[in-house]
Protein 1
Amino acid sequence: MKQPWKRGALLALALLAIAALVLAIGRAMQDRKAAAAAAPVAAASATSAPLELLPQDLLTLARAPLARTLQVSGSLKAVNSAYVKAKVAAELVALKVREGDSVTAGQVLAQLDTTEFDWRLRQAEQQAMASKAQLDIAERQLTNNKALVAQGFISPTALETSISNEASARATLQAALAAVEIARKARGDATIVAPISGLVSQRLVQAGERVAVDTRLLEIVDLSALEVEAALPPEDIATLRLGSTAQLMVDGRSEPLAARVVRINPSAQAGSRTVPAYLAVQPHPSLRQGLFVRGWIELDRRDALVIAVSAVRTEQVRPYAVRVAAGRTERRSLQLGQRGVSQGVEVVEVLQGLAEGDQVLGIGAGLVPSGVTVRVAPVSGTASAAAAAAR
C-alpha cells in the first residue's frame, strides 16, 4: 500500500496543475477582450489617416474622339528593289561597289571577263562575211541564168534552181547576221549595270570568282519609297479601307511614323490564311529596309465617354474602376465598349458605371478598397495657395 504522505503529494501536484490551467485560460480570455476593444480604436485611427494621392493619380472622365483601331505589325520593305544577276557565265574581273554605296540606273557596277565573248563575236562576224560572199555568187549566177533563159540556152528548171540557191544564200546571211548580234549582246552583258537607282544593301560575290548564269551579284534597294506588309486576319479585312491612316512605331525612333493603306492583297496566304495589307510610309533618312514596326490602323472615329485602359481593374470577375467622390473611394463595376486610341493613349469606351466628370484612380495608386479617405497632396506652394483659396 501507498503511504499517506505520497498520496497527499500527488493530490497537491494535481491541484497545482488545475490552478495553472485555470490561470492560463483566464489570461487568454482577458487578452481576447483587450484585442476586441482595441480593434475599433485601430480602425478609427486608420480611417482617420487619409490616403495621400498625387494629382497624376486621379483621372477625370470626359468625352473625347475615340478612334477604332486595328493592331498591325510587320517589317519595312522598299517598294523598288532589285537583285543584280549575271546574264552570262564568266569570271568576275571587277566589282566596283560595296554595301551602302549609292548607285544610279545605268551605272556600271561590275565587269566580267570578255575574252571568250570577243572571240565568239569575231567568229560570228567572219561567218557573216562568208555568207555575204556566197550570196553575192548566188545573185550573179541568178542574173546570168535569167539572161541565158531569155536566149534559150538553158531550161527554165535551171533558172528555178538558181532562184532557190540565191534565196538559200540570203537566208544563210540573215542567220549569220543574227548570230553576230547575239554574240555582240553576250559581249555587252559582260558589263553589269544598275537596273534602278538606290543603295547597295548586299554584295554577294567577290572579284576573281567564276559566276554562272543568274548568279546574284548585288542587291539594290530604293529607300525613297517604303511600305509595310501587315498580315491581317480575314475578319478584319471587311472593315479595312484603302486610304485609312495609320500610326506606326519603328525600332530606334521615339516619334510615331505616319502611314496609310495603299493596297490590299486579293488572296489569303496559304497556311496562315491571313490577308496581306500594304501601308505606304513617309520616307525618312533614319528608315531602313527590314526594320520591325508595330502600330495601329485607324478604322473610324467618333465621340465617346472614355477611360484610360490603365485605370480599369480586372482582377475581379467584372472590370471595375475606383471612383473618388467626396474624398472617399468607391469601387464601381463597369460595362465597357469599344477599345481604341484617343490622343495617343489607349482607352476604352465606358457604357455604364461612370459618368462624365467622375474622377477615378490611375494604376499608380495601386489596389485601394472602398471607403478609404483620400487627400490629394499639393504639388507646390502655389498649388497649395490656389487650393486654399478655392476652399
Protein 2
Amino acid sequence: MRVHNLYVDDKGETHFRDIEIEWVEQGPAGKLSKRLPATGIIFREVQPDYDLDWHPAPRRQYIINLDAGVQITASDGEARVIKAGEVILVEDTSGKGHLSKAVEGKIRNCIFVPVE
C-alpha cells in the first residue's frame, strides 16, 4: 500500500515522496500494518469549488479523501492528484507549503488523522 508524503526540506521547499506501508501480519482477514501513532480524528466537508492558495499544513496528519480527489502542488512544482480512497501524510508544517485545488466538481468528504 502506498501513502503519498508531502514533506519540507531544510530550505523550506516542499516535495513529494512515496511511503510503502510494511505488512507485519497476514491472515484470513487480510494484511495488517503495525499500529501507527495518531491523536484523534477530524471529519471535513469541502465545497466543490474550494481551492486554497499556498499554505503549510496546520499539523502533521494523514488525510483520506472519501469520495472525491484533490490536486496538491508542492513548492518544487510537482503536482499530484490524490484520488478518493488514497492516503496522504502531510508534514510540510513550515516553509512555503503547498496548493490545494478541487478537481472533480463535487463535495469532498475527508478524514484528517493528526499524528502529533
Protein 3
Amino acid sequence: MSKIVIVGAGQAASQCALSLRQMNHEGPIVILGDESHLPYDRPPLSKAVLKSQLEIERTVFRPAAVYEEQNVELRTDCSVTGLDQVAKSLTLADGSQMHYDTLIVATGARARSLPLPEAVLAHSYLVRSWDESLALKAKLENGAKDKPLVVIGGGFIGLEVAASARLMGWPVIIVEADTRLMGRAVHPRISELCLEKHRAEGARVELKTMNQDIEASDDGVALTINGERIEAAGLVIGIGALVNTDFLKGSSIYSERGLVTDAAQRTSDPDIYAIGDVAICEDRYLASGVRLESVQNAIYGAKICAAAITGGAEPRLEAPWFWTDQYDYSLQMVGLYSPDLQWIERDNGEGSVTLIGVDGDQIKAGQVINAAQDFAVMRRAVDMQLPVDAASLSDTSQKLKALILKK
C-alpha cells in the first residue's frame, strides 16, 4: 500500500492526514514534526494565549487518541534534514532514512529575526510558535512594566501583540518602516483606522521609522527611535516570515521563497505536494502565484491535496480569507487587497466600516471592521462571482445583503 509522509505538523498537516483517511486512503500515513507538541492552532498565540484568555494546551487541534484511532503515525521532536528524490527517501536528524511513496511538505514558515547581538536577543521575542508565545507571556505577566515594550513591525502579529500588551497594562511603542500599518495587506482606510485605534488605546506608533543602535541595557535593551534614546523592557520582532525549506536544498523543487504547486497542490515532482504557508499555488482563483499565510489556506489546500491523491471529491472553490483581532476591532478580509480595484466605502457608524473592492460588476475583495454580516455577504459574493451594481454599494440606507444577494 502507498505510504504517505507529511513533513510538518501544523494545521495543514493535521487536516490533510485526517482528510486522507476520510477519503479512504488505506496505506500508512506518517506526520513528522520538529516540535515536541501535538499539532496546534497558531493564531491565538499573539492574542488570547498572551492575555491568559485561553490555556495554551487548548490550542491543540486534536488529542493524540484521534491520530491513533485514524492510524496516523505522529512523530514529534523529529526533524528532517534531507531529501533524495530518486530513492524517494528522507534523511532524519538522527541519521536514519524514511521511505515515502508520496511526500507532502507542510513545514510552514518561521518568524524572521534580526541580526542582533546575543545580549539583545536575550530580551527579544518572536511569536510564531508555542514556545515563543510562552516566553513572551512570561515576560508580560512577570515584568515590571516600568519600561516600554517595543514592537518592531506593524503587521498583523506585531499589532496583535501590541494590543495584547496594552490590555495587560504595558507601555508600548510600535515601530514600522512603511508609511502605514499592514501596508501590503489592507486598504489605506483600514490602516488609518487601526492607527487611530492603537494611538487611542495608548500605544505610541512611529511610522517611516527604522530602529537604530540596538544594544543590551540593564534588564532590557536600549535603542534609538527618531533620534530619541529609549530604554525598553524588551523587543517583539514581527517583520515577516521565512519558509522552512532548508531540508530540500539540492532538490529540484527547492526554493527559499516557497514551493510552487499546481491547482492540486502538486509540485514539479509528481510524487511531492506542498500545502499551507510553504506553498505557492500557481493556479488558484484570486490568489495565483501568491504564498498565503492563513488558517483558511491551510485547511483548503490540505483538502485539495487529499482529494488529488485519493481521487476524492474536491472542496468547494473558496476565495482566500483572513482575520485579525486588535482591541475591540475585528478586522476580516476576503480576497487580496489591490489598489487597482475600485474601492467603495460604507461607514456603518459606531466604529464599523465596510470596504468593497470591485472590478467591473464583480466584487473581488472585501475588508471590514466590526461588520461580520457584511463580511459573510462579501465572502459569498466573491466565491460565487455574483454580479453587482457597483454604484449602489455605497448606499448605507440599505443593508449590503439586500444590495448584493438580490432574489
Protein 4
Amino acid sequence: MTTRAFILIETAVGKTKDVVAALTKVSGITSVDPVTGPYDVIAVIEGANLNAIGNVVTNNIHPIPGITRTVTCLAIELSK
C-alpha cells in the first residue's frame, strides 16, 4: 500500500512561483498547487512508507530556497 501525505508550505514573500517550480522537479511529489489562505502551496507526496515520505520532506523539500515552514499531514485509511 502506498503512503500519501499532504505537505502544507509557507513561502517567503514573492517566492511562491520559484518554490512551485522547484517542487515540480522533486521525485515522489504527485501534485503541487499554489493556494490562498494560511499556506501558500500544497504538495502531495506518495511513497512506500512513512520513512520514504520523511526522506523526501527532509532531504528534498526543506532545502528549497524560499520555503519558510512546512506541515506534513499523513493521509489515513479509515476502517469500515
